[in-house]
Hints:
The chain has 126 residues and is mostly beta strands. Helices cover 0% and strands 47% of the residues. The chain has no helices and eleven strands. It has strands at 3-7, 10-13, 18-25, 34-39, 46-51, 58-60, 68-73, 78-83, 92-98, 115-116, 120-125. The strands form two sheets. Strands 2, 4, 5, 6, 9, 10 and 11 form a seven-stranded mixed beta sheet that branches. β4 (34-39) and β5 (46-51) form a beta hairpin. The radius of gyration is 13 Å and the shape is globular.
Amino acid sequence: xxxxxxxxxxxxxxxxxxxxxxxxxxxxxxxxxxxxxxxxxxxxxxxxxxxxxxxxxxxxxxxxxxxxxxxxxxxxxxxxxxxxxxxxxxxxxxxxxxxxxxxxxxxxxxxxxxxxxxxxxxxxxx
Length: 126
């Protein structure tokens, strides 16, 4: 049974930094792409970033380009999202996600992902 557990959310000042982590269990982590999504109140869930199973390729949403970095440590079965220069519009619940199929290219479509964590809240203050 695949489980994804996010950590690291909280309150951060505008302009500050935060690092989220997502620990995966239940299968061979290093064989699967991983993604981060977020959902703000009253808005649809949106893509934030994804990373290939090998870590050799990643994609980031325009909203986080240059500020957000996704990376993974396959030895620790963990994917991270480093967020810098945070803005008020970054306030959301952040979810990590994983696909069912091994070694597929990571994508921006939430429909490509079959497993989701419970989410971690990020709040940006003035």
